[in-house]
Amino acid sequence: MSSQLLIQTIANAIMASSMYALIAIGLTLAFGVMQMANLAHGHFFMVSAYSVYALYALSGWPFWWAVVAAVAVGAILGVIVERTIFRPLQGDVVSGFIATMGLMFVFEVLVGEIWGWGLSRPIPSPHMGAVRFWGAAVSFQRVLLMPFAIVSISGLLLFMKRFRLGRALRAVALDPEAAALQGININRMTALALGISGAYAGLAGGLMSPIYAITPSLGGHLILPALIVVVVGGMGSIGGATLAAIIFGFIMTFVTTLVDGVTAVMVSVTVMAIVLVIKPQGLMGRVIA
Amino acid sequence: MRKTRFGKLSTWILFAMVLALPSIAFSASDKLTQDEAVILSHLPDQQIGKTYPKGKEINVGFLAALSGPDAGWGLPGVTGNSIWIEAVNKTGGLLVGGKRYPLKMYKFDDEANASKALQGARQLVLQHDVKFISAIGGDPANATAPFLTKHKVIYASLVPTDMQPSRPYVVAGGDVTPQCNMFNPLMAKMILPSEKELGRPLRYALTTQDDIMSRQVGAWEIGAAVSQGYDIVYEKFFSTDTTDFAPIVSAVLATNPDVISLCEAWPEYQTLMWEQLYLQGFEGVVAQNYADWETNLTKIPPEFPAARGAIDSFPLMDDPWWGENSWQASFTRIWNKQYGPGAPEDVHRRMTGIDWDHVVWFIPWCIGAQVAGKDTPGEWPSNDAILAALRKMPSFATILGPGHMSGQEMFGIQNMIEQPVPMNMFDLKANDKRIIAHMNFEPWFEAIKPVVLKEVKKRGQHWTQRK
Amino acid sequence: MLSHNKEQNKIWTLTAPISIGIIGLCLIPFFAGPYLIEVVMMYFIYIILAQSYRLTVTIHDWQLYHIVMYGVGAYASGMLAKNFGVPVFLAIPLGGVMAGIMGVAITLPLLRTKGWGFYIATYGLAELVRLSWLKFRNPFGGSTGIINIPWPSVIFGIDFSEGIPYYYFSLVIMLLVMYCLYRIEYSQLGDSFKAISMDPDLAASTGINIPRHRLMACAIGSFFAGIAGGLLVHRLGAVDPKLFNIVTMMYLLIWVVVGGTGTFWGPVIGVVVMHTLFELSRPLIEIRPAFFGLTMILVLIFLPGGLGNLVSKVVDKFKRLSIPPVTETD
């Protein structure tokens, strides 16, 4: 590999890692607090991206306000789903899995009916240029992701450590029964967790809407890599998800560049299997009793 | 079990909301419009206005993905076929053998899945007795071919590589692939400096998604590139799950190509690839099968594709080349009136190539029926007779110009419509693609045939190698 | 002894409806059009898939590789028949064996993995298999897949490439598979399986070798999934990797979860109800997935335990009304 290509590939890999990280942190938070997977997380992303399309591309809102709206949309979706799906299911993991699968279908059809099924929705790049450094070029829109990823991850970690609500969330994640005994309202915490999770999905969707092809099936493409990142990192572990995001971002990017995309997925999946065989709870996950 | 009442209530509300989804309105008018008369003009013998006895309803099928992730490829095709059927039925039906046969379309959602496609083929033929099926092709074509051959039902695929001698009723050609792809290296040479000037052969790179059509079309395109003296420096297929194109474009650019062909890359992929080409600073020529400039130009400035040639071959129906009074212009007007913004069946998107791609074969089938029907008055002709009639005609009307049946050389069977191949380039003034030429494929192919066939066979993509 | 009494009870309540059902299925080709026969055949394949899935699920966990085992059986059977001339009636069970081996190969390293790590790891390893079909064009055909897969040959003058003979062939296979699974369910092996699924620690303490039983269940379940694959591929005549992707796995999960795994008949009910709903809702075209998804959500929220549980409760009520009370506790 020439040094030019190497630098470009490293730059691409860092961008890919930021993308995985932004998508994964919301998911892992929901996992940690509810012990249930929100398969519709990718679709929160997709719906938020469409919100940016509707507000920014169609109605002319300034881009950053559209992103704020996307965050709100994600948060609202998260709370609604918690109320209507997760709460009635009372911790039945499998049913939660299947129910969110049903949600995926519903969101796809809603979005397709409102905004059309053919081709992808064009979202103008608000900043249409590249950042060049050391011979590598990265789209400005992607470079923006990195500070957002760093700030949102550290922000979430800070929130969980220093703030009462955040600590309450951690308590529920660690031991729901003990937390309930302490007087923490589990329902409110799960609603909060899914609201924050949805907000992160919204942020990711909003920021990345100019980067991806916006189609109703976008959520489906994103949820599987997100799940792999979350599970390998350790469910509920934000640090683990970040680490896994970096690992898979680099693997996918380098192998795709050197060989091809299918091989990249095969390598990623093998790495994932090896990690899970050696450490079933993930890189930084807690051992399940 | 403790369940919150509110939880259940919200679930019911969600249910009700989805049930309240707006239902599709039906079109109102009954009189044939001027535009519809224009599009019917492709039929040699429709005799609009003259009454004839009514024949039975002739059913046709539409077998493609109508829901789910692949719906973008199938669902839009319904509009074009519906427009044609509506126009024909307004005149009383297709005039064949002295009777007017109304047309009716039955749809089946195969979700681009081979086993569902076979189920769909069975339903369409066994329950609805369809004579002609519009489909996308690919894996579904493989699964349905034996059954449809047995029942002699024509399967009009968008994937020309589905055609084989063992499938006498699989037809294609709507897409003018791979011919249009094969012209890419030729067109690129018009823009690039010559080998002599550069002191080295020109370099060709090709990358597209890995699916049946792309594999075969890619082989034909590479063959054409080799015949034009190019060195092939990159030839790889990416997974259809790819969402990040940065590494792929980096890999392509590392080989220093003069031409990058995106071949059959789907619209959503080609947008992201163009973006990366721009960001990573490609300075050569870009060619492809289908460019979507409305979306692409939201990510890249128009100067970039203008400087790259930006060759593609899916023409716009409202390209001024056709002319205000053309078939294409009429079709566009009808489409916008029924499916455009504010229309009764507003599909909330602009017209794509897929909306008219299936009509390309549907109309010639109707033409063939009219011609064959002269030999069997009072009866609807068999598909064998229809295909034979079409093959005998030196020329018949198609959407892209005068066409004739071909395909013996490339696919072993004369089941392909050969039409003038439209080639577009990006036009800065129009901020969109514009037709710059219609190419005549067969004479050119004659000259380069041996080289091309060698490359196609080397990749195992010739029909004789498809076991 | 508990299991034998239960078995007698079940036979009492089930023999009549099952016999009627089987006779009905045998008679369908005489009354239904050729299209309907094909549709019912798909139900047979799906029932085999769902029922075999239940076996692997109740004893270990929700694995996500089952559909790829379906694929392994399909590819293996297809390739054996086409490339090596193995007669179809032999190729299909061999395909099943291949799938069984693959199922064990995937489960073996993951025996100690639990919960979400297990689900995702099984999905990942299965994808590894599926992607190798995609990547290695030789011999698997890549994205193009394999075509010209032979139909079963003519035996005793019956041409099994025709719809009706193949229908009976699939019916017989499905009934055999159901019978095997039923016998396993109510055998000593099945008791061990149930013990493990209810309380693994207690089962281990009674000397049951848990890993061995888990692998056995996975092998049997995957074997039957492979059989289903063989049935599919010799009907289609072609195979490609897309048939075995996550979307198909999603449908399988839907049938099994909606039907419920608590009862033996749950998956069958799930397939019949959900797949019928799926087929009947075709007129909805692009809206269909939303309708389907909503139905899933509603069933899951309002009918925990699935439809099988519901039917079971109804049958129990009926039983209590018509049969004198038995001394054993439920």
Description:
The complex is a heterotrimer of chains A (289), B (467) and C (330). By secondary structure, chain A is mainly α. Chain A has eleven helices and two strands. In chain A, strand 1 and strand 2 form a beta hairpin. The longest helix of chain A is centred in the N-terminal third of the chain and has 32 residues. Chain A is globular, with a radius of gyration of 19 Å. The relative contact order of chain A is 0.20. Chain B has 467 residues and is α/β, with parallel strands linked by helices. Chain B has two domains: 243 residues, Rossmann fold; 170 residues, Rossmann fold (3-Layer(aba) Sandwich), CATH 3.40.50.2300. Helix content of chain B is 42%, strand content 16%. By secondary structure, chain C is an all-alpha fold. A two-stranded antiparallel ribbon of chain C has the order 1-2. At the B-C interface, helix 1, strand 4, helix 5 and helix 6 of B face helix 2, helix 10 and helix 13 of C.
Which radius of gyration of chain A do the C-alpha atoms yield? 19 Å
Are there runs of chain C of 5+ residues with pLDDT below 50, and where? none
Helix content of chain C: over 70%
Q: Biggest interface and its residues per chain?
A: A-B, 66 and 61 residues
What is the strand tally of chain C?
A: 2
Q: For this entry, what is the oligomeric state of its chains? A: heterotrimer
Strand order of the largest sheet of chain C: 1-2
The number of domains of chain C: 2
User: What is the overall pLDDT average of chain A?
Assistant: 87
- Euclidean distance between termini CA atoms of chain C: 14 Å
Shape of chain A: globular
Q: What's the arrangement of secondary structure elements?
A:
The complex is a heterotrimer of chains A (289), B (467) and C (330).
Chain A: H1 3-34, H2 41-58, H3 63-89, H4 93-115, E1 130-133, E2 136-139, H5 140-162, H6 164-174, H7 176-181, H8 186-208, H9 218-233, H10 238-258, H11 261-278
Helix pairs in contact in A: 1-5, 1-6, 1-8, 1-9, 1-10, 2-3, 2-4, 2-8, 2-9, 3-8, 5-6, 6-8, 9-10, 10-11
Chain B: H1 5-19, H2 34-40, E1 58-64, H3 71-74, H4 77-90, E2 94-96, E3 99-101, E4 103-109, H5 114-127, E5 132-135, H6 139-150, E6 154-156, E7 170-171, H7 179-191, H8 195-198, E8 203-209, H9 212-227, E9 231-238, H10 246-253, E10 259-261, H11 267-279, E11 285-287, H12 293-296, H13 303-308, H14 327-339, H15 353-357, H16 359-373, H17 383-392, E12 396-398, E13 401-406, H18 408-411, E14 416-418, E15 421-427, E16 432-439, H19 441-458
Helix pairs in contact in B: 2-14, 5-6, 7-9, 9-19, 16-17
Chain C: H1 2-31, H2 34-59, H3 66-83, H4 88-107, H5 115-135, H6 137-140, E1 154-155, E2 158-159, H7 163-185, H8 188-198, H9 200-205, H10 210-236, H11 246-259, H12 266-280, H13 288-302, H14 306-322
Antiparallel strand pairs in C: 1-2
Helix pairs in contact in C: 1-7, 2-7, 2-10, 2-11, 2-12, 3-4, 3-5, 3-10, 4-10, 11-12, 12-14
